[in-house]
Amino acid sequence: MNFGCPEYRVKALRGHVLEERGVAREMLSISGYWRRGADEDTFQEEKRAAATS
Description:
The chain is α+β, with helices and mostly antiparallel strands. The protein has 2 helices and 2 strands; from the N terminus they run E-H-E-H. It has one domain. The chain has helices at about 10-20, 40-50, and strands at about 1-5, 30-35. The protein is elongated.
């Protein structure tokens, strides 16, 4: 299962799908694709920085 959503919804959606729907973690991919108030370049730069820290 693949989901794309606003970045602020990722945590809640992941919890719902894993815990309430019983989907196995290895079957799930959820990614925040945008953040209110951030342009795409800024958001992608922040995502890369968070992934390397």
